Amino acid sequence: MLREPGTSLQNDGERHLNAGAQPCFMLRQELQGSYINVNNLKRLGFHGVPSEPGLRAVVWKVLLGYLSRSPDEWDQLLARRRTEYHIFCDELIVDPKQPMYSRDGVPGGPLPSTQQQQAHSDQGSPLQPESHCEDVTGQDHPLCLDAASRWNTYFQDNETLEQITRDVVRTHPDMQFFTGESEASELHRQEMRRALFMYAKLNPGLRYIQGMNELIAPLYYLFKNDPDPHARAYAEADAFWCFMELISEFRDHFCQQLDNAPTGIRATIRRLMSLLQHCDRELWYHMEVKCKVDPQFYAFRWITLCLAQEFAFPDTLRIWDTILSDPHGRMDCLLRICTSMIILARERLLKGDFAVIMKTLQRYPPLDVSILLDHASSLPSCSELGMSW
């Protein structure tokens, strides 16, 4: 076999290993510098973060702005943000009766904060309701209708937590990590419930909306599987802050009062249809004009959940690598991926009527996500087409 001077022969296996190792090396090198070039990090992450233990978790934390561009600041920054989260838990979980709840949690009841759990764990006893209650009068009475009553807040919190619990127990039912019967799985559900509950408490104008569990699940999963035991211990707090950053760009899609606003879900779906019309007018005409398919029937879930329910979990992580890394922005990237999903099912959709189109797009057929992402990267960005946000 001919070779260039100064090079060595490699078999196919060696070349494959080197090809897989190079992205890991380049990402590690970027993360270990004194200052991270986020544009370089995005360029590398756009093509997928290798499944090296702990690597994707760190990359996502930087891309979401949770970690700064200076790694030397990370320890201090993480300590501060994790402490802030635990303070929120201590201050915002209201129980006017004052007892602690059991470690398993009372169904629909507020869970103890992480610090409270640890304190009782160190004592070697489970968290159990105390045997007495303080005297209750005035605003402390359970029947008090005052909006400022702690009991009124407590009952409202219970309603919110019940809704969160119903969703969390249904998160990725095919994965033992989320829905198993082990103590570890129950801990995962408990920590996800509390993180979502804290978001609801800190965002009273929106509170918790069904589907938010699907957005925090990939974040929590990554952080809870970090090879660093110290990082794993704070997966709940880290997932909470990263979820806050992620949903800040998509939160208007969850607010029904903003459905018709320029930043609402209907406007975003219209942008999706405009992009499809530009890229494949024949397909757009067949679906929207001829068959009169309302895109909200399938695109609402795609967009609000960032495709978290449309693909296998590993594929979702790969898709999010690209969404978080896209230089045109997360929403722009998401709409291009959604457009590609429609175009790549073109043959089936053009042959189908209303029922076939709905069945295809509401239960999207299996697809190699690398083909999907390559196709999406070839489409023009919304900004290039003059679509403003």
UniProtKB/TrEMBL annotation:
Residues 98-138 are annotated as: Disordered. This is RabGAP/TBC protein. It comes from the Eukaryota. Residues 112-128 have a biased composition (Polar residues). InterPro entries: Rab-GAP-TBC_dom, Rab-GAP_TBC_sf. SUPFAM superfamilies: Ypt/Rab-GAP domain of gyp1p (SSF47923). Gene3D superfamilies: putative rabgap domain of human tbc1 domain family member 14 like domains, Ypt/Rab-GAP domain of gyp1p, domain 3. Residues 50-327 form the Rab-GAP TBC domain.
